[in-house]
């Protein structure tokens, strides 16, 4: 539900944040939010969330925004990379999606395509508000029910402010993971949180065994993402591990 975040007990996180802040270097003229903080992995959904109608139409693709830019007030262009093989369904969805207009195929690769779209005034977004409350977008990709995001906030107040924005606009918020960010982060080097999660589940469920204990379709169901998302994340994660291991 959209108000799920405000019911979370932040007592321990707040205590750890204050402890970290006490050790920060106060000699710099630049105000710092680099120490500590809260990292939230969330799933956001709303009928008019950016590209949500298209994502609902083309469930077999994975979409990752590359960047967006505002040419003039009221004109915002967004470039997105689409992974999978159901590009026809994605393009058909774009034709009737009220959140975007003027879709353009910018580039084509064997396993993905890059599109440019223009936001309409009916699109519901959250990236500007994330920055406005002091947060930072770490990761953003499509899931079966909207968008999966990983955000970092300097403190509880920023997180609650973001949640209130979502609640006021009826954006559904589902919390997948919430942790305090610190120097002791044990995330595998070179992997994103989603890649690490996928490899962990794949290993525990026997995806790499012979015979396999779980298929890509079943992994997709477990992680609530499309099969194409599982395929490209596995490929990227294994590539990153090989690069970091073989280059040393």
Describe the structure.
Residues 212-232 form the HTH cro/C1-type domain. The chain has helices at residues 11-22, 52-57, 87-96, 127-132, 156-168, 193-204, 216-223, 227-246, and strands at residues 38-45, 62-72, 75-83, 100-108, 112-119, 136-143, 146-153, 172-180. With 248 residues, it is α+β, with helices and mostly antiparallel strands. The protein folds into 3 domains: 5-17 and 35-46 and 124-180, 2-Layer Sandwich (Alpha-Beta Plaits); 52-119, Gyrase A, domain 2; 193-246.
Shape: globular
CATH topology of the largest domain: Alpha-Beta Plaits
Domain module count = 3
Overall mean confidence score, pLDDT = 82
Helix content: 25-40%
CATH class of the largest domain: Alpha Beta
Over the alpha carbons, how many angstroms does the gyration radius reach? 19 Å
Largest sheet features: 4 strands, antiparallel
What structural class do helix, strand and pairing data support? alpha+beta
- CATH architecture annotation name of the largest domain: 2-Layer Sandwich
How many helices does DSSP assign?
8
CA-CA gap between termini: 46 Å
Number of strands: 8
Strand content: 25-35%
Order of helices and strands: HEHEEHEEHEEHEHHH
Organism: Haloarchaeobius amylolyticus
Keywords: Transcription, Transcription regulation
Protein name: Helix-turn-helix domain-containing protein
